[in-house]
Amino acid sequence: MPRYKLTYFDFDGGRGEPIRIALHASGIEFDDNRVSFAEFGKLRGGLRFNSLPVLEIDGATITQSNAICRYIGKAGNLYPADDLQALYCDEAMDACEDLSHHVGQTIGMEGEELKVAREKLVAGWLSVFLRGLDDLLTRSGGSYFADNRLTVADLKVMVETRWLRAGSLDYVPTDLVQRVAPGLVEHQQQIESDPRVVAYYASRA
Ligand SMILES: N[C@@H](CCC(=O)N[C@@H](CS)C(=O)NCC(=O)O)C(=O)O
């Protein structure tokens, strides 16, 4: 078995969290290397794309969270074997990536600048992406994003939905997802209650 080391921030969310859950659900042992923002500041310039997550496999360094999700998903039967279902899975993960990118552009802003940017985001890109993700879920039958079963796309969207509903983003109303994309709220609850996800958080407790 190769040695896996995942480096990401020390909170239960973001681009690293679906990878951690997928590794755990797949029974793959890994070094869960959690860094503080201060530690990241020191590491940043030496990282390939100045960002996290980074997965090391026997010392080889891999970046790009969706590529990592696919790789771990294949190893742990959390990624579709069928090409069309794999395409559905990828489409949802890439939409999350775009959504995170739009939100990420407002991180670090303060005061009036933050308020204006977040309100624009809520009325614009956030609503567009939430509706789009809800549409993808409906296309696949309303329960899972692909293959009628848990895949890494569900983990990625669940983490994103949880983040947007948590109240941790100023000027993003906690009921936005419920208003714009109610199917994603039900999806979040369903994925959070999947025994593999429950077992992961139990292992963290
Ligand atoms: N496309 C990359 C994006 C990576 C990314 O932007 N990561 C964020 C954290 S979720 C980051 O490290 N931001 C710090 C920075 O850009 O300085 C991926 O999916 O891995």
Description:
- The mean pLDDT is 98.
- A four-stranded mixed β-sheet has the order 2-1-3-4.
- The chain is built from nine helices and four strands.
- The longest helix has 29 residues, at 111-139.
- With 205 residues, it is α+β, with helices and mostly antiparallel strands.
- The site of glutathione (GSH) has 12 residues, from helix 3.
Entry summary:
58% of the residues lie in helices and 9% in strands. It has 205 residues and is of the alpha+beta class. Bound molecules: glutathione (GSH).
Lay out the secondary structure.
Elements: E1 4-9, H1 17-25, E2 31-35, H2 37-43, E3 54-57, E4 60-62, H3 65-75, H4 83-104, H5 111-139, H6 152-165, H7 176-180, H8 182-192, H9 195-204
Parallel strand pairs: 1-2
Antiparallel strand pairs: 1-3, 3-4
Helix pairs in contact: 1-3, 1-6, 4-5, 4-6, 6-8
This protein binds glutathione.
Strand content: 5-15%
SS-based class: alpha+beta
Number of helices: 9
Q: Can you list the strand order of the major beta sheet?
A: 2-1-3-4
Q: Give the low-pLDDT segments.
A: none
* SSE arrangement, N to C: EHEHEEHHHHHHH
Number of strand elements: 4
Helix content: 55-70%
